[in-house]
């Protein structure tokens, strides 16, 4: 991704949108040294959205291990021995 100052982006907004759309180039918009936004092709945004949904679902599917439950199981197993 190419860094692009906000001032340069404002001067040639149409040109950068065309480069993003037709050449599928991505840009990081900066203000001073700070990165403030990104201009990315829709295909890249769609893929990032898909990945975000996938990982959110994957994390939601994992059940947290409750340490008090595992300790109780160990205690019960020892008592049964």
Write the layout of secondary structure elements.
Layout: E1 2-5, H1 6-11, H2 13-22, E2 27-31, E3 34-39, H3 42-61, H4 67-80
Parallel strand pairs: 1-2
Antiparallel strand pairs: 2-3
Features:
81 residues; alpha+beta; three-stranded mixed beta sheet; 4 helices; 3 strands; 19% strand
Any overview of this molecule?
This protein has 81 residues and is α+β, with helices and mostly antiparallel strands. It has 4 helices and 3 strands. It has a 3-stranded mixed beta sheet. A hairpin with a 2-residue loop joins β2 and β3. The longest helix is centred in the middle third of the chain and has 20 residues. The mean pLDDT is 85.
Uncertain ranges:
none
Class per helix and strand makeup: alpha+beta
Radius of gyration: 24 Å
Question: How many H/I helical runs?
Answer: 4
**How many strands?**
3
What's the assembly state of these chains?
single chain
N- and C-termini, Cα separation: 62 Å
Largest sheet: 3 strands, mixed
Estimate the helix proportion, in percent.
55-70%
Roughly what fraction of the amino acids lie in strands?
Answer: 15-25%
String of helices and strands: EHHEEHH
Strand order of the largest sheet: 1-2-3
Q: Please tell me the overall pLDDT.
A: 85
Q: What would the principal axes of the Cα set say about the shape?
A: elongated
Task: Provide a compact summary of the structure.
The chain has 81 residues and is an alpha+beta fold. It is 62% helix and 19% strand.
